[in-house]
Automatic annotation (TrEMBL):
This is Multifunctional fusion protein. It is a multi-pass membrane protein. Forms a complex with SecD. Part of the essential Sec protein translocation apparatus which comprises SecA, SecYEG and auxiliary proteins SecDF. Other proteins may also be involved. Forms a complex with SecF. Part of the essential Sec protein translocation apparatus which comprises SecA, SecYEG and auxiliary proteins SecDF. Other proteins may also be involved. It is found in: Cell membrane. Residues 753-779 are annotated as: Disordered.
């Protein structure tokens, strides 16, 4: 048995090494062959200007154009275009900006189609044939349209419309060999009407045109099948589903499905302009952001190496692998990388340090306890002990990412994709790559003889200081809660006193387009407008040397200042367009984002209640709400804009805060199941805080070094992003210790955490059984 165990460990190490090599080989291949799409701020893209047109029944006013914007947003999401900008311009125009579109003309065609879907009973054929697609209106809403073969059919008024459609998907029918088809699912009431119209058609003999049902899209019959002979008269086709068949290619079937699923435009639109636009950020801003990211990452790597020596150096290699895996995954899913997304990606590298720090700190504890004969056995125990905390913190984040992806839209949906990829890549990096490198290094004879070079042979200065002093931080938990409440009220009052300064994405503003005699560089225009008092102006080159300026709402005097500033740079200046624009983050997008966020928090609470206890889940979510209020309140006091960049920072802080609380509560759960379970809950919580504090400090430093570099070295466009995250990291670290923990103690004392078997006094609670992850070694 003694010989088989080392052999088993060697097999496990080789197996993990093979997995790591396969993952890295795939990541390198994807990274070299599939470039990541860059966003409008980094590279620019295609701008399409649409104009809404009135019909006999609907006027193309501001309300109808706003509804058109929401339908177009759904179509763009279905096209797979991430991080677009869609705004209403004036009362009847829509400006759509798409980054990295392969076929701009195809995108314009899809966006410009009205997609009015109707289903009609067929009354018979009309006299004459021809390819004329014009609808001939008759009595009672009847019309005449040519079918797929040019035969003119008389159609009754529509029985179903696009509003009756629940969903549509493009599928390839391999069984019948019919090729690509579109499956349409109707709502409950629509399904009943579908059964009725097919049941009436089934009463006519086979071959009779009246046995057909016509499906019409934008006054064109796209399918008019006969009802199958197996369908009985009056019974109809039940189930609320039908298939649209035809000679569709893959692309045509998918386009038709997205048009049907996305719904009809409330009014027709016409493409009046299409052009190429430049990046919203200048080369200097992009370069400064990139240098800040490189320096911040290097400082984080240096910090980890200083603290953990050899293991820190190996963790740095694993983090570089993490970056490559994440980049390859973003390229594989077709994600769009913006500058805030790039900064968030770099921050994720700093946060990915967390899993490595958790393992190394647990290995230090095992080594200090003198229960492990070697560095490698301490590392193995460290991975085993840290697994539950790593798994739980990452699962809670994945739950949030999944709900943001499936329920939200626009940039919030994109953030869910990036977050999910980052979490999965982090787990692969820490649990596979780091472990392979660390265990291989620890098994080398040179390392075995010099355990001090590993960085885990000593407990570290932070843990030594805490062990010497052994402070009882949770002696008076209500004082910490009072302090947290005071800070939250002081920060939150800024929301009421000063209000929130929403950015252009939320409020809309003004769009002015200029033509100048001398071509103006967009970077120079940004600098000049910032000096003139418009630091948030978004400046893009557009078309053949024109310049577009997008700002918050302006007075006539301010608009004149903008025009004069551009004129000083470009000579004689002509104003081509001057229109009010709507928000790019509209009401529908905000509602979807809030719904997704609320459900994500509820799902995290449920998961933590199942994995830990309800009081732990409640405490973690309460600390999260505390962090959000403080962050938003501080930005209100500072007069900083609440825009799309801040939204990305806020979502990142939410994930960070939950991770901190989960790690702490995982240690409390372990202590409750251990030999010290008879101690008071406050004492156990205090012990858990002291044991996890080195991890909290080291992980926080990894994130702070990167954020400080972004705040100091990057352009103004990233300063607010870095500031929001610095505040969030600081508040999140504080709240996990001094808000979530005292709240859990108070709830426990009031009976929220007690089992039915609990009797008088603290510490008499029935022990919580250790979870499978805590009992079993991960090999």
């Amino acid at each position: 048995m003694k010989r088989s165990r080392p052999r088993s460990r060697a097999h496990s190490l080789r197996g993990r090494a093979l997995v790591a090599l396969l993952v890295m080989a795939a990541a390198v291949t994807i990274a070299l062959t599939m470039p990541v799409r860059l966003g409008l701020d980094l590279r620019g893209g295609t701008q399409i200007v649409l104009e809404t047109k009135s019909t006999k029944t609907t006027k193309a006013d501001r309300e109808a154009t706003d509804r058109t914007v929401e339908v177009l947003r759904g179509r763009i999401d279905a096209l797979g275009v991430a991080e677009p900008t869609i705004v209403r311009s004036g009362d009847n125009r829509v400006v759509v900006e798409l980054p990295g579109v392969q076929d701009p003309q195809q995108a314009a065609d899809v966006l410009g189609r009205t997609a009015q879907l109707t289903v009609h009973p067929v009354l018979g054929t009309a006299e004459g044939t021809g390819a004329d697609a014009e609808a001939a209106e008759g009595e009672k809403g009847e019309r005449v349209l040519p079918d797929e073969e040019g035969l003119r059919l008389r159609l009754e008024a529509p029985t179903l419309t696009g509003e009756d459609v629940k969903g549509a998907d493009a599928r390839f029918d391999q069984q019948s060999g019919a090729g690509w088809q579109v499956t349409v699912d109707f709502e409950d009431a629509g399904g009943d009407r579908w059964a009725k119209v097919t049941g009436e058609a089934a009463c006519h003999p086979a071959g009779d045109p009246r046995r057909r049902v016509a499906i019409v899209l934008d006054n064109k019959i796209i399918s008019s099948p006969q009802v199958d002979p197996s369908v009985a008269c009056g019974a109809g086709i039940a189930g609320g589903t039908t298939q649209i068949t035809g000679s569709f290619s893959d692309a045509e079937a998918r386009e038709l499905a997205l048009l049907i699923k996305g719904g009809a435009l409330p009014v027709p639109v016409e493409t009046i302009e299409q052009r190429t636009i430049g990046a919203t950020l200048g080369d200097e801003a992009i370069s400064a952001g990139a240098w800040a990211a490189v320096i911040g990452t290097a400082l984080t790597a240096l910090f980890i190496i200083v603290v953990y020596r050899l293991m820190g150096a190996l963790a740095t290699v694993a983090l570089l692998c993490y970056g490559l895996i994440s980049y390859a995954a973003l390229a594989a899913v077709g994600a769009t990388l913006t500058l805030p997304g790039l900064a968030g990606f770099v921050l994720a590298i700093g946060m990915a340090v967390d899993a490595n720090v958790l393992v190394f700190e647990r290995a230090r504890e095992e080594q200090a306890a003198r229960t492990r004969p070697s560095t490698r056995s301490s590392l193995t125990a460290g991975f085993r002990s840290a697994f539950s905390a790593i798994a739980d913190s990452n699962v809670t984040t994945l739950i949030a990412a999944a709900l943001l992806f499936f329920l939200a839209s626009g940039p919030v949906k994109g953030f869910g994709v990036t977050l999910g990829i980052g979490v999965l890549a982090s787990m692969v990096s820490a649990l596979v790559i780091t472990r392979v490198l660390a265990e291989f290094a620890a098994s080398r004879p040179a390392v075995f003889r010099r355990p001090h070079i590993t960085g885990i042979s000593t407990t570290g200065p932070v843990r030594d200081a805490l062990l010497r002093r052994d402070p009882f931080l949770m002696r008076r938990p209500r004082r910490w809660l009072a302090a947290s409440a005071l800070v939250m009220v002081a920060a939150g009052s800024g929301i009421l006193v000063r209000g929130l300064d929403f950015g252009i994405e939320f409020t809309g503003g003004r769009l002015i387009e200029y033509s100048t005699t001398t071509q103006v560089d967009a970077d120079r225009a940004r600098d000049a407008l910032a000096d003139a008092g418009f630091p948030r102006a978004v400046v893009q080159s557009s078309g053949d040397g024109d310049l577009t300026v997008r700002t918050e709402e302006l007075t006539d005097a301010e608009a004149e200042t903008v025009t004069r500033t551009i004129g000083e740079l470009g000579g004689e200046t002509e104003k081509l367009r001057d229109e009010l624009i709507g928000p790019s983050l509209g009401d529908e997008l905000r509602k979807d984002a809030l719904l997704a966020l609320g459900l994500a928090l509820a799902a995290q609470l449920l998961y933590l209640a199942v994995r830990f206890r309800l009081l732990f889940g409640t405490a973690a979510v309460s600390a999260l709400a505390h962090d959000v209020v403080i962050l938003v309140g501080v930005f209100a006091w500072l007069g900083k804009p609440i825009d799309g960049v801040f939204l990305a920072a806020l979502l990142t802080v939410i994930g960070y805060s939950v991770n901190d609380s989960v790690v702490l509560f995982d240690r409390i759960r372990e202590l409750l199941a251990g030999k010290d379970r008879k101690a008071s809950f406050a004492r156990l919580t205090n012990r858990a805080i002291l044991q996890t504090l080195p991890r909290t400090v080291n992980t926080g430093m990894g994130a702070v070094l990167i954020l400080a570099s972004l705040a100091v070295l990057a352009d103004d466009s990233l300063t607010d992003f870095a500031l929001a995250l610095l505040i969030g990291v600081g508040v999140g670290t504080y709240s996990s210790v001094f808000t979530a923990s005292p709240l859990a103690i108070e709830m426990y004392d009031r009976g929220a955490g007690a089992r039915p078997a609990r009797r008088k006094g603290r510490g008499t609670e029935k022990p919580v059984p250790a979870s499978r992850a805590e009992r079993q070694e991960v090999s």
